[in-house]
Amino acid sequence: MSDALTIRTVLGDIAPGELGVCDAHDHLFLRSALLPGQELDDPVAAVAELRAFAAAGGQAVAQWTPFGLGRRAGRLGEVSRAAGVHVIAATGFHQAAHAGALLTERVAGRLAELFVDELVRGLRNDDDPDAPMGTARAGMIKVAGAFHGLDAHARAVMTAAAEAHHATDAPIGVHLEGGTAALDVLALLCERLDVPPERVILSHLNRSPDARVHRQAAEAGAFLAFDGPSRAHHATDWRLLDALAALCEAGHADRLLLGGDTTTSRARATTGGEGPGMPFLLATLRPRVERELGARVANAVFVENPARAFAARWNGR
Q1: How many domains does the chain have?
Q2: Is 3 exposed, middle or buried (0-12, 13-18, 19+ CB in 10 A)?
Q3: Residue 97: strand pairing partners
Q4: Which InterPro entries match (predicted)?
Q5: What confidence score (pLDDT) does residue 25 get?
């Protein structure tokens, strides 16, 4: 069994040093019952967005769309290759409202098995968990909390994610609803289910700019993802640099990740949407980070930290 750390992309495993400049949380394809008419389902548009990201200096994207939300698993490798950008795909399961009651019922009780299969063997068709697998494998597990807490669904999915993590060493990315319940998530995953905190990525923390919670999560050892500058309706965007600066001053620059979280076609800029889309992360936000926090912090946030957050030993699988 090899102890080498690798990052699992849709085109195969790579060394962490090959990942490069990374958008740590975004979406190339996404279909949600809560976002009717705003699906990301066009491979041509996905390639255009990725190429624009690459033109701004991007080399990798973590695609957090989990099972059941229209990942277009069979097209991810093609899109990655066409744009020349590494793509990390996600297994996992979102809130039931996003996936729909019928699909949730079909996978209930078999989530851990599904997650491990997608990490080790290949991604399944989103509409049919029993369909043959594709060749692209997931490189992370995506789960979701509830608003200011963890409901029964969240606990069940996180328990399955922890089981899959222990079988594979895969990192677990957590959607925090409104940026809340970060400490509840860590209490469940890390204290009760024995997932090492450095294998947990907490997302959307910019939506709840509670500096004390941010600091506690960083002190615990989790990675903190501030994502969503492409979602312009989030009024907390203007606090982002202050939140990052506070964490850097507290000695936690090595815990920070940034992502675009483009979830609707309207949020893309390259295909006629309002934008600003994935390129905004590097064309606008990275220069601000460099100017206000320094080049060393910017390199940590966009290169070094993602390479550590998404690397795994895969337990020989």
Answers
A1: 1
A2: exposed
A3: none
A4: Metal_Hydrolase, Phosphotriesterase
A5: 97
